[in-house]
Amino acid sequence: MILEDSKKLRIFTGNSNPALAEEIADYLGVKVGNAFVGHFNNGETQVIIDESVRGKEVFIIQSTSQPVNDSLMELLVMVDAVKRASASHITAVIPYYAYARQDRKTRGREPISAKLIANLLTTSGVTRVVTMDLHAGQIQGFFDIPVDHLPGVPILADYITSKQLEDIIVVSPDLGGVTRARQLADRLHAPIAIIEKRRPMPGVAEVMNLIGSVEGKTAVIIDDIVDTAGSLTEGARALERMGAKEVYACCTHPVLSPPAVERINNSNIKELIVTNTIPLPPEKLSPKIKVLSVAPLLGEAIVRIFGEMSVSRLFD
To answer: Name one GO molecular function term (predicted).
Structure first.
């Protein structure tokens, strides 16, 4: 896609997901801007922007994935650099927004880190944020600047449809994910079921009940994040015990902290479908894991923002 007046647009990336940035740039028909993002000898983040951004609309593509704090600091310092170089607008394209699970206080003396990150981004000079599948949608309200919150469900649904699975039932892994499950189910024209579980301690989940019937059906579990995959694989085993003939799973953000890949490989999950909002290193790749690209979606969002067109039309 060739943008009109693309001379006014600049794409930059940090070190968290340069491959995705290159895909997006290819979609737009532009090149990733020249910038050095590294470290001084003492470990501090060093950024050098090697081309003029004066009066330009700058899009910085950076997932705040592992190493989370380095990725976040790179983003903040890059924003400060282009702001001081007189960029006209600075959009932070953050496919994966870190600290999103810390969106409220659940006990005394806890931080609300998702709000802190929003404050840091705004203070650094970001004028707009583009992100995907926030763990808690209300994080959009932590910002006093425009936020475009893009869904991963259409990408996942298109791939699942292409597999031509029969007797699908979409399963939400908990009560909080029902809306996401309903969105996928509507696209697949399938019913939904809900796993009811409890967490006796952090990182441990026990399946207590299933709302709905999966007997003889192909179950598709959907979540926004797969971290250690403990809840996911336990839920998949429970669905099999309850009569599901096959179990698939999908999510937007494959955090896949150890021992997630081992758990998935040893589970009854036929395939875990994820996107490349977070890049997977070789040790996290598996024949059971299918990676879909979000570059066309993010690229189209950039086209619409740059061209002052509606971004919400992407959701139709």
So the answer is: ribose phosphate diphosphokinase activity
